[in-house]
Amino acid sequence: MEHGDRHITVVDEDGNEQLCEILFTFESEDFGKSYVFYYPVGAEFEDEEETEVHVSAFIPGNGEQEGELLPIESEEEWEMIEEVWNTFCAEQEEEVE
């Protein structure tokens, strides 16, 4: 996965692939990582309460090698991600009004 890509393929623990739409990416200087919010293609992202949105840390690909999704490792990371998500949702609400 590269910054700026719009889709990623996520492989679950059973080896099943699912195409997902990237909602947005961001970088955290505090944690030194990039993060991506994404949801399954076909799920309409109109109401965040009804759409299952996932978030992962990621290592971008370099053209020769695919990027890699990584799990969120700490409670501090989850707190930071929740703040970013709340800011994103507030900005989306302002755009609608």
From TrEMBL:
Superkingdom: Bacteria
Pfam families: DUF1292
InterPro entries the record matches: UPF0473
UniProt family annotation: Belongs to the UPF0473 family.
Record-given protein name: UPF0473 protein SAMN05192569_1001120
Species in which this protein is naturally found: Parageobacillus thermantarcticus
